[in-house]
Amino acid sequence: MRKRPTLEDVAAAAGVSRSTASIVLRGPDGASAAARKRVEAAAFELGYRPDVRARQLATSVPKVLGVQFRLDSDFHARVCQRLYLDANAAGYELLLSGVSPTRSAAESIRTLEDARPSGLVLIDPDEFPAGALDVGIPHVAIGHTGPAELERVSTSTGLGVRQAMEHLAALGHQRVCHVSGGTHPVARRRREVFELEAERLSIEGWTIESPDGTVAGGIAAARSILASSLPTAVLAYNDEVAVGVITELSRHGLLVPREVSVMGFDDVGWIASGLGLTSVSQRIDLLSQYAVRLLLERAPSVFRPEGPAHLKVEPELKIRDSTAPPGSN
After folding, report:
1. Which of these, 11, 74, 168, 215, could form a disulfide with 21 (CB 3.0-4.6 Å)?
2. What is the mean pLDDT of residues 39-50?
3. Which domains, ranges and CATH numbers included, belong to the chain?
């Protein structure tokens, strides 16, 4: 295995002192143009990368943001991907800690807090260990769940469902089935708004429960749909459920959107754009930007005298190929 190049290796290759190489690679003025050119060329040639952790230890300034996320969520993965961009732009690295069936939220948060980051981003925190806010580390939640005293950034669920239902109504759909996402608080909220919007728009709407917010859950729900009266459109809890619904409908010879229109929610990368799925975007770019901004604005204090901030992001309807007027050719 090739040894990772050190700062001393770069200095030796460039023919300068270690301190000069350090000045060049850290960015401040103080080195001649010729020395800077040699050091940058040597670093590139050697494949040198600075040791971020060692720099943090040397300066005693943690330039790391911790992130708790669920390992089984495509949406959480996309949020993490965007958080890397926004944290790096602010000069911070990310430390990720996952939640899974074999790893609790409490364990995930303890791991992050033990690292003493500058702040923590908690994506849809379903569980929250007692006293976790009392460690002197700023916390920001992305999503609607978690204790009320958390700072948070979230997309308006009500507006997103309203956009979806108005789109289907404008296409002429009068029989719409909502495939819910289980017992999660967000799933319950989307179901409530769906029912209100169906009544407001004079649409015959009903809900079929899926076991969870996965592709398999969507397949199971589609089997229930096929066993009853067929709707002209389906509004799924999220994009993964929508994929499951489309998969099972297609397996039974039903064409989407010619015979049944299908909509998702979240607008997750390859699932939505790759499959031409009409979906409601949660604007991951803004959720990430606002979460990082909140953390950096409030550090190092934990509580705002005026109470926790709650920033709302407006969702965006993404119309693609999976929705059309009923009976379209």
Report:
1. 11
2. 83
3. 7-50 (no CATH), 61-156+285-308 (3.40.50.2300), 157-282 (3.40.50.2300)
